[in-house]
Amino acid sequence: MQPRAIPDVLLILFTGLRRTEAARLRWSNVDLKARTLLIPSEETKNHQRHPLPLSDYLLERLQARPRLSEYVFPVPGGAGYLVEPRRAMEQVRRTSGVQFTLHDLRRRFLPTADSLDIPHYALKRLANHRDSSDATAGYIVADVERLREPMQTISVFLAQLIGIEV
pLDDT grade, residue 4 (50/70/90)? Predict the structure, then answer.
């Protein structure tokens, strides 16, 4: 059976991306062979490019997602990207009984990663947080491959938590 395409709200939950970073994601910044996605510097809050590894779950769901536009999450029947995924959010709210915002999904990603003992600098890198006062951070090289295992660990945990079989 073909896996279902990933809804936009789950991309935020499983990556910790900001709402606008996920909404503006273009297919040209998704590399299914290398199993990565890239948020260009002009799309990030700190203006630093933000490469991320794709977990197995995200890779399968993105592979299943139809390419209807240059954007991964296009506006239905129109041009541009989906700014607010109201239908998907309402479906999750009805199913779970939990009221939430898209930023709450990012807020859930970070403490989840911390609870799984993801190293501090890996967590900062996954969240694209920079701290200019942290001299040690400047010496830590965290390329996308070093983040793959932590991303997979977080993804498996979240999938189990919300009842998705991975």
Answer: low
Neighbours of 136 (CB within 10 A): 9
Helix (H) or strand (E) run with residue 88 in it = helix 86-96
Helix, strand or coil, per DSSP, at residue 1: coil
Q: Which tokens belong to 18? A: 């900001």
* pLDDT tens-place string over residues 13-50: 999 999 999 999 999 999 999 999 999 999 999 898 99
Q: Is the pTM of this model over 0.70?
A: yes
Helix, coil or strand: residue 41: helix
3-state secondary structure of 113: helix
Q: How far apart are the C-alpha atoms of 158 and 72, rounded to whole Å?
A: 22
- The Cα–Cα gap between 64 and 59 comes to 9
Q: Collapsing DSSP states into helix, strand and coil, what is residue 89? A: helix
What the block records as the tokens of 100 is 């939430």
Q: Which two tokens stand for residue 138?
A: 């400047």
